[in-house]
Write a structure and sequence with these properties.
By secondary structure, the protein is mainly α. It contains five helices and two strands.
């Protein structure tokens, strides 16, 4: 797989993470009493203020920005950034899914968070595999990459 197709596939995975997180927030609104809670100025027991709004927006914007970064930066930096961001986003998703499951029981919006976390871990794993694999750009097809075997007769 060449670098462009790898970057495109990882960018699509980041967009899928953003869709999963957005879907989680939308499915949360369909829970009984959630819409009334939001209209009363609370979100999951916390006062709905600017910080909570920026946090929710950040959870959607970070995967979209990572999709753009995946396409725009170099190959080695791309794999490091995807490894770090994928692990961070995946660990946060696991923490959120486990915390909500223990507090409120299992809901459909928790499933979307778990899907987002699984995709983020997949992105991190792809970055790790790319870092462990030898570089494809070493030029295996050129004469400088391997010494030419001379025939000894």
């Amino acid at each position: 797989m060449n670098a462009r197709s790898f970057r495109t596939r990882v960018a699509v995975l980041w967009v899928a993470v953003a869709v999963a997180v957005s879907g989680s927030f939308l499915l949360y609104l369909f829970m009984p009493g959630a819409l009334e809670e939001l209209l009363a100025g609370e979100f999951e027991g916390e006062t709905l203020d600017d910080a909570v709004g920026f946090f929710i927006a950040g959870l959607v914007i970070i995967p979209v920005v990572m999709a753009a970064v995946t396409v725009l930066v170099g190959d080695r930096v791309n794999r490091y950034v995807n490894l770090i961001a994928g692990m961070a986003f995946g660990l946060f998703g696991v923490y959120a899914a486990v915390g909500h499951t223990l507090a409120d029981g299992f809901n459909v919006h928790i499933l979307m968070v778990a899907v987002g976390a699984a995709l983020a871990f997949l992105i991190a794993g792809l970055g790790l595999v790319g870092l462990r694999r030898p570089s494809q750009t070493a030029g295996w097809g050129t004469d400088q990459s391997r010494p030419r075997e001379e025939a000894t007769v």
